[in-house]
C-alpha cells in the first residue's frame, strides 16, 4: 500500500493506493487515528470497487496521533487484514494548535486559549506592539494547562477509549496577556521553546470604557 502524500498538512486529502490485489466487491478500507477497540472501530470506512486501485480520504486535520489506513479483504467467508499504511502529520503532534482569543473582566487584558498534545512545559505567549516612535516592546507571559480522561466521564460508552467514543482531547492551555495599551494593535505567538510556537497573529485591544466599538481579532 502507498500513501500520497506520505505526511499530511492541515486539511489535506489523503490518497491510498495498492497494487497486485484481486479485490472482492466486499473489500473495504478504514481510517483511524489513535487507539481502536476492534476492526469495526474507525473514523471512516470506504468500500472498494473491483475496478479501483485507490481511495481518497478528504480534509484530514490534526488529531494528535498518526493516521492509519487498513485494507480488509474478504476471503473464505471472513475479512482478513491485507495491509496497513501509517501517515503522520507533517507538523509535530505536540505543536500548539487552535488558538482562540477571549475577553475577561479586565479592560487591559486579553486571554489566549490553545490546544496541544503536550503538557511537559509551561504554556506561554509572546506579544508585542510597535509604539509611535518605532520601538517594539515584547512581553512574555506563562499560563496553566488542564485536561480530562475517559475515567472522568459519567458512564459507558463515554468511558470507552476508541475512534467512536472517547478520544483524548489533549491539553487545553490558558494564558493571560496583561498590561495592554488600549485601542492598540498587538502581535502574538503561543506555545513554548520545546514544543514550538504558533504562527504570528494579531488583535486589537479594547477601546477605553467610554467608547462603544467592536473589537476585531483574528
TrEMBL record:
InterPro entries: PAPs_N, Purple_acid_Pase-like_N. Residues 96-204 form the Purple acid phosphatase N-terminal domain. One of its GO terms (cellular component) is extracellular region. It comes from the Eukaryota. Keywords: Secreted. One of its GO terms (molecular function) is metal ion binding. It is found in: Secreted. This is Purple acid phosphatase N-terminal domain-containing protein.
